[in-house]
Amino acid sequence: MEATKTQTLRRTSRYRMDWIIQARSLSGRYWIPANPVLASAAFARTVFAFRLSAVAMLIVSALGPSFVSKGHSQSAPEVSPAVLEAQQLRIQAMKQASLATVAVYGTDGQGGGSGVCISPDGYVLTNFHVSSPFGHRMRCGLNDGKMYESIVTGVDPTGDLAVLKMVGRDDFPSASIGNSDDVRIGQWCFAAGNPFVLATNLQPTVTYGLISGVRRYQYPSNTILEYSDCIQTDAAINPGNSGGPLFNMRGELIGINGRCSFEKRGRVNVGVGYAISIKQAMNFLWQLKSGRVVDHATLGFTVATDTKGKVSVSNILESSDAYRRGIRFGDEILRLGDRDVATTNQLKNILGIFPDQWRIPIRFRNDDETIDTYVRLQSLHLPSELEEIIKGEAAQRQQPPVPKKPSAEEPIPDEKEKALQAQVVLKADPLEGLYAEKRGFSNYYFNRLQLDRILALQVQDGKWNDSSESWRIVGEVPKEQLAIEMLLNDEALTFRMQDKSETVHPRQGWPASIKQRASMGVAMGMRLWQEWHRRGPRLMGDAVYLGRNPVVGREDLFDVTRITVSDFDTLVYTSPKNGQIELIEIFADGQSDPVELYFEKYEPVQGRLTPKLLRLSYGLETKFLVAIDLFETTSPAGGQGL
Amino acid sequence: MMRRTLKIATLLAPFLAMACWVMNQVIAAEIQRDANVTINNEALISTSQEKVVKLYGAGGVKGLESYQSGVIIDDQGHILTSWSTVLDVPKVRVVTFDGRRLDATMVGVDPQNELAVLKIEDAGLVGFDLTNPAAASTGQRVFAISNLFGIAAGNESCSAQKGVIMATTPLTTRRGKIKSLYQGKVYVLDVVTNNPGASGGALIDLQGRLIGVIGKEIRDEQAGVWINYALPIEVAKASIDRILSGTSGSSDAELKSVAQPHLVNSLGLTLIPDVLAKTPPFIDKVREGSTADKSGLQTNDLVLLLNDQRVDSRKSLEKMLSTINREDSFYLLVQRGQELIRIHVRP
Fold this sequence. Notes:
- The complex is a heterodimer.
- Chain A has 13 helices and 34 strands.
- In chain A, the strands form seven sheets. An eleven-stranded antiparallel β-sheet of chain A has the order 27-26-25-24-34-33-32-31-30-29-28. In chain A, strands 3-4-5-8-7-6 form a six-stranded antiparallel barrel.
- In chain A, strand 3 and strand 4 form a beta hairpin.
- The relative contact order of chain A is 0.08.
- Chain B is of the alpha+beta class.
- Chain B folds into two domains: 41-244, Thrombin, subunit H (Beta Barrel), CATH 2.40.10; 252-345, Pdz3 Domain.
- Chain B has five helices and 20 strands.
- In chain B, a hairpin with a 5-residue loop joins strand 2 and strand 3 (78-82).
- Chain B starts with a helix and ends with a strand.
- Mean pLDDT of chain B is 83; it is low at 31-38 and 248-253.
- At the A-B interface, helix 2 and strand 11 of A face helix 1, helix 2 and strand 8 of B.
């Protein structure tokens, strides 16, 4: 009898029933199934008796206030419809949000943390410190009680973020993304997750709380994990909650829980938990989807707050983009990333939410004037430093973050379950082919996947792969009415402006011209445009999808592919909608401004989308515009420029 | 089997009923309030945050924090805070909500309630209105605002937490060691408010009225339980009144020496050398068999109070001892590690 009951208890918890009330008595923990059909008759009776007594108590207590507060009305207090409505909304929000909450385990079911699914195809946001001990494979449990095989996509060791991909469905429940910039102290919020690895039924624990602080900066403590611009809450966040979602009361995702203030009271919540803002997570999302080990950024200068509270540049690298934009020692930094800067902490906060290579707006003041410009962010770490971190984490893989639970609470699989598990083993590995190792990547497979995606985006009338190798482009600089001609082929690259003509090798030896800010940049950009369309990025050189970056003057983010061609690197910005190239940047080195060739306008010419208006910039200065009149893709007789 | 479960059910029933009743009270109280005022948490908390300051002073060693919180209690620049070792500096650094750094002077302390009042000059700050202190009761929802863990710096906002007053009870400890000087009425909270740096923070009701001051961290040595509590505003108000009317606190000038006083040396004590403007009165050595030894004083004890009067330095201890006749006994409050111990020194 005793054994049957225990087993029933365990089995019910294993079957992930819809409603399980967890009650704590003085002696231990009891699982109380509310669906008596699955439980044995005797157990059902005891449960029924218990529930009956509980219901009776509830009725008594509901009537309680009317007996106690005689001074008020005689009947039970009417609950205002507004309160009931608010409660219903809260229940709905939590129910919805719980569906997208993920319990993260190792492949052996050990360890554990939390995550949140953000797209129907199964991409999961979690903490780097949750995913890192498991290597590249893990299992994600969802609210439906099912475990899904999952693989790591990209990791951000500095920002403590990781993206995983669950497999097995294309309709995973996903969280709706909120706006963490709108989060204010005093708003209500709730966290969902797997604290203390309690979710043996894979259903998340929801904890309710107040936003205690916003835009908090938490120094890296013994690690490189830096929490900038994070949200502080008193909703209970405990070990195991890491990587899980923080929601606003509309059930929108506003943060990824990841850190707590612990001190002398041991590793349990003491009213202070921190969540990485969803804004930061979204800024990094596509970099993480690229399968890379992504990096954070520096401005190329440091700041200090002086006695008057001015945040000014205390040190600046002369090779930095910031220096080239005119920022000098002693200049006061007023704004960064469209936010005011009044303290060093605020500057660090803002900087911490952006990936490297992004160009973000900055406002600074020198002795004479206030200048608004953009600064290109530099990598915070050397690639080798990031590798060391990943290696260090890998070394700790033998010690999962949360110890295995005592066997008394371990569900015992019954025969059917065992058979099912055996079946799983026999089935083909669902993660087969979803992992590829490469230096600098957490999973190179996803980089190939993303590059395939942006190439597939190119609409039919944007394809040039069947065009001839020799192109002739004729146009003019509208302002000065200068005639321009470009000849692009595999032998040479020729650029003529009025009567001045220049020829370079079609694939190398460009840096010298770039450093001189040459007009030739237009032809170089066009040559790369041609190569991208005719041969594709993979044949141009070492092509790596970086993620999504902003383009100065545009609202949206663009897919960015970096190609190391020969003695130069290029960044190709394509539209996430149609794969069209928006901008090509060509870097001579890290010390000078790259060529920036913007493709301002496309028009269909003979059934192909053709660039009509080009803009050449160095730094942020536009050198000139080129309006294109003629676009010939047939080899002209004679083959000029040889 | 069934009987056993029923037994559990019967055992649990009163708790459940109690919980339901408390919840009902909370809901009922809330509805009543909601009917009258529509409150916006964000506005309420942000207004209150402007009345809470960050304090920085002595400490930073041996688990003693050098920071805590304080509450502005009027428009004259008076700040109420916990009386702690943080205040053992000539000038306590006050950082206001807008990031201003100001120096505060000590107005006085109330050792009994472990509260102190500081003052900053001409800062134009607006404080809580304490003319009609708000009453609070068990089951009521509250917000706590403090700079716990020193998370906020400069112009960053102090942290806000939500909670419910679980009990209103005296802070006497029947079992375990007494670590709190204050033994009076407290609000026990269901939220972990009493963290490092939180003491002196504000407890407010849903109308934004100050109803309590967050107390120091206290842990029951035997049970290992940390208590989260606040001193009710009427207790704080009594301290403020005492301090501002000048009936409490220490003023060395008024002390009158006696002809045959106690001397540090004759008690059997050696204090650490007087090297600072306010050298803390740490006991360096206790002579064996001396009065101090027999009374139970030990090396490394820090003298905090003498007959309930604040001892803020080695000099002031010497001065205060000089006012007590050699035949008379007196009380010392000493800090030993993280403990406060009251010692009766009998000649």
